[in-house]
Amino acid sequence: MPDTDERVRTWMHELRGPRLDEVLRIRSSVLAGMGELSEPERRPSRRRRATPRLVLTVAAVVVTALAVSVAALAGRGAHRTPAVVALDATARAAADQAYTPLQPGQFLYTKVVGMSQLILSGGVVPLDVSGAPILGATATEINQALREGRVQRSPTPETFTVLHETTNEMWVNLDGSGRVQTVGCCPRFATPDDEAVWASSGRPDLDSFIRGITHDFAPGDGPMVGDLTLSADPDVIGHRFGGADGTLDLEEVGDHISSLLSAPPEVRAALLEAIARIPGLEMVEHARDGVGRRGTGFVTVQAGIETMVVFDSSTGQYLGSRRVSVGTDRYPKGTVLSWSAVLEVAPVAEVGATPSR
Amino acid sequence: MDPAGARGGDDDRDDDAVDLVASVHDPDRFRRVFERRVAEIFRFHCARNGATSAEDRTAETFLVAYRRRSSFDPARGRGRAWLFGIAWNVARHEVRSSQRRARVAARIGGRRESHADVADAVVDRLTEQDAVGWALARVDDDSRDVMLLVGGAGLSYVDAADALGVPVGTVRSRMSRARAKLRSLLQLHDSIGVSNERGDSEEVFDA
After folding, report:
1. Are A96 and A61 in contact (CB under 8 A)?
2. Residue ranges of chain B with pLDDT lower than 70?
């Protein structure tokens, strides 16, 4: 082989290959694209043909709901920001989609991939109601776990942050029974400082904190019991997912919104109205979710962390969320702290089943 | 491996082709192609257009491949060559898009359109300190592409011809020209490197 060929080959082989996080993002993009290309149910014409009467009925209900929504927003004065206007448009798009309610006995299956932030905080690890470590605990979850005593001792008295990939699958029945199955992998430190704290704490095994869990819920016990039957009232939704004053926290929306993915269009429209009430909400016209799908983003910034939820502009379907530092003491600007992308939502016959392609 | 050989590749088996054909009815089989080839497709994109957005171009390559997998015909070439052909097209398209953007930016900014600007941008993306990167950035597209596929990725002439959609004879003649150009550029770079070691000039790079 001529010398030039050999030099080019050596040069190319010495170029860096994709890092693990790059491979995971590439894989997620490809899998998401494969899912969309393989998903015949995404063809709207087919679905509309299947249930024309239902669509008309739902559309009538939703048009009424939206009229109330827009009137309510307009009634609050001249504060219809571009984000609110876009949310109305998104709500209309969502309302225009065909809807088939979950049948008794069926389970709503959702598959969400993403990256989560696990904060090993102040010597404790937050536990969920089942006693399992909460993967990617948010500050809110940590505080709630502390209040309720759902914590275990962390191997370190100091706080450090680990980012890790997650795949969450959920089966939820109308009666609240179902299963949550989480698989975590590939931990890495958010910053070099986090790695230094971890090292000085005796290098505890990170995999033990992100190991997957599978938990089955009996009727009435599921974490989302009632979510599938919420009324189409933004106040109800605000109090269900928001703070004491009923104001939503966009981060909470991102965490819990998948439970509303199969809700009737009018409930989703009410959710969007509740989102529109979040103070300081801004719109990102050409946003991308964690796997690169384009949509309309809605953003808030709190304590130096920008939280964005992304909706498909044409269907109003929720795509995913992401949290990025815009500059805090702890995380440099641009540090992606978490993201999630909803890859599949469909009714299935039993727990453990996945939609047939 | 002799690059001029007939059907080259990792070995005689063409696992990519088997999986691509099977993936038409079993999409999960496409994942095997992805896992097997993602690193070298990423490197190809880094080598051709630079590391910026190589992630996006790699994802786009596999998405296009997935979309077109039913058109893959194992009788007409190896799976790996077909995949590199898609990667090459994705990379070419990105450069054309960036050239269009540069033209638009030039008009908006009142600047005169300059091909040199685009070439400089490509150069900037490559590793300037690296002799091979420096030389590849200074040859024409045809020479660079054939050298990256045959010299860099190790495709046979036949496979490179499949990837580029040109006759084997064209690959052969392009490789001959590419080797000659690269050889003289590398000699130039090496001589500049000696000059630099004596401390007399980075200006030579900018000339």
Report:
1. no
2. 1-12, 95-129, 190-207
Distance between CA A348 and CA A103 in Å, rounded?
10
d(CA A195, CA A77): 50
Percentage of the residues of chain A whose pLDDT score is greater than 70 = 66
Q: State how far the Cα of B127 lies from the Cα of B41, in Å rounded to an integer.
A: 18
Closest by CA position to A173, among listed A246, A226, A132, A245: A226
A30/B66 touch (CB, cutoff 8 Å), yes or no: yes
> Which residues of chain A make contact with B150, given a CB cutoff of 8 A?
5
Q: At what angle do helices B79-109 and B157-164 cross, to 10 degrees?
A: 50
**Placement of tokens 């959920």 in the chain:** A170
Q: Closest to A4 (Cβ–Cβ): which among B44, B148, B182?
A: B182
B75: distance to nearest CA of chain A, Å? 25
Model confidence over B138-163: pLDDT tens digits? 888 899 999 999 999 999 999 999 99
Measured in whole angstroms, the distance separating CA B50 from the mean position of its chain's CA atoms is: 10
Give phi and psi for A333, each to the nearest 5. -55, 135
Distance CA B173, CA A126 (A): 66
Q: Give A356's contacts (C-beta < 8 A, 6+ positions apart).
A: none
Q: Nearest CA to A30 among A341, A345, A346, A348?
A: A341
Counting every residue written for chain A, the total comes to: 357
Backbone angles phi, psi at A129, to 5 degrees: -65, -20
The helix/strand/coil state of A114 is strand
What pLDDT was estimated at residue A77? 29
The token duo for A286 is 């050409």
Residue with tokens 């097209």: B89
Burial degree of A343 (CB within 10 A; 0-12, 13-18, 19+): buried
Give this prediction's pTM. 0.46
Three-state DSSP at A277 gives coil
A151-179: average pLDDT: 78
Q: b vs e for A253-278, b when ≥16 Cβ sit within 10 Å of the residue's Cβ?
A: bbbebbbbbbbbbbbbbbbbbbbbbb
ipTM for the predicted complex comes to: 0.74
Of A84 and A302, more confident: A302
Residues B55 and B59: their CA atoms lie apart, in Å, by 6
Task: Please state, in angstroms and rounded to a whole number, the distance separating the CA atoms of residues A116 and A337.
Answer: 7
Burial of A223 (C-beta count, 10 Å sphere; 0-12/13-18/19+) = middle
Residue type for position B64: V
Q: CB–CB of B47 and A12 under 8 A?
A: yes
pLDDT in the model for residue A139: 58
B20 touches B69 (CB < 8 A): yes
